[in-house]
Amino acid sequence: MNETNAPIRILIHGASGRMGQALLRLAGERDDVVVVAAVQRSQPAQRVVDGVAHFAAAELAGAPAFDVAIDFSLPEGFGPMLALCEQRGAALVSGTTGLEPEQRAALDAAAQRIPVLWAANFSLGVAILSELVERAAAALPGWDCDIVESHHVHKKDAPSGTALALGASAEHGGAQPRYASLRAGDIVGEHMVQFAAPGERIELIHRATNRDIFARGALHAASRLAGRAPGHYRLRDLLS
Ligand code: NAD
Q: Which residues does the UniProt record annotate as the domain Dihydrodipicolinate reductase C-terminal (predicted)?
């Protein structure tokens, strides 16, 4: 809810996708948020579904007023969504992976004017895994560090955004991670971080079996981000 106790108005960008569908369904179970618009790449067959107005990406500028956009689309869609949030003074929560360095720089620049949050992974388990990886890397100097990630065959970017974020944690602890990616079947997302030395090996593994965990995390973050001062927030800033 915002200060006036009205539900926070959400625009979902990437609404027809796997994450978008989970977001629409789970937002409907909460009373502190209301989805006012759903945007996807192409012209939707049905314009209004369960009271939510659906738009094609080309019609983004005509979207109704919203407090926060939740973006789980593709890198091509990210720029226009960020620009609209800046124009409207709305917050942006994004989980879109595979962003180019210029897109990350644009997000940093936008954070001077609006509240933004980008996270490679919205699950609590991965947040904890990330801390464990950094601690393990710091405690095991000289050990080999390898990150193996597995996802469904439709995932476009590799290594996954989560693997790269875990790699950054490992680097922070002093390790030099290498990456391997598998694309198979309908795997929601698995990340294994292995530390190995002659004669011994540690494996830290996170398995996501349902993408609702990401959607719940993103909705929670959106409800906490709307109305904040401009800035580039991290998921952990909003979890408590
Ligand atoms: P998907 O392919 O199922 O859906 C993509 C959606 O984006 C569709 O609605 C499509 O219409 C829309 N889209 C594509 N191009 C667009 C454009 N140019 N403009 C507007 N909309 C556009 O993908 P998905 O599995 O739902 O994943 C979406 C993104 O979220 C991917 O980048 C994926 O890696 C990422 N992801 C992140 C997390 C996380 O926790 N951060 C979790 C799961 C997925």
A: 125-239
User: What integer pLDDT is reported at residue 45 of this predicted model?
Assistant: 75
Look up the pTM and report it: 0.91
Residues in the chain: 240
CB count in 10 Å sphere of residue 147: 25
Outline where DSSP puts E strands in the chain: 8-13, 33-40, 48-49, 52-56, 68-71, 91-94, 115-118, 144-151, 178-183, 189-197, 200-208, 231-233
What whole-number distance in Å separates Cα of residue 103 and Cα of residue 100?
5
> Is 96 annotated for ligand binding?
yes
DSSP category for residue 44: -
Beta bridge partners of 190: 150, 207
Q: Is 227 exposed, middle or buried (0-12, 13-18, 19+ CB in 10 A)?
A: middle
Q: What is the three-class DSSP state of 164?
A: helix
In the block, tokens 């006012």 appear at 36
Query: What is the structure's pLDDT at 1?
Result: 64
**What is residue 43's predicted lDDT score, i.e. its pLDDT?**
81
The dihedral of CA 176, 186, 70, 238: what is its sign?
negative
Give the span between the Cα atoms of 15 and 23, in whole angstroms: 8
> Please, what are the averages of pLDDT over each run of 10 residues along the chain (240 residues)?
81 96 96 95 83 90 95 96 97 96 97 97 92 97 98 96 97 98 97 98 97 95 95 84
Annotation says 206 is catalytic: no
SS3 151: strand
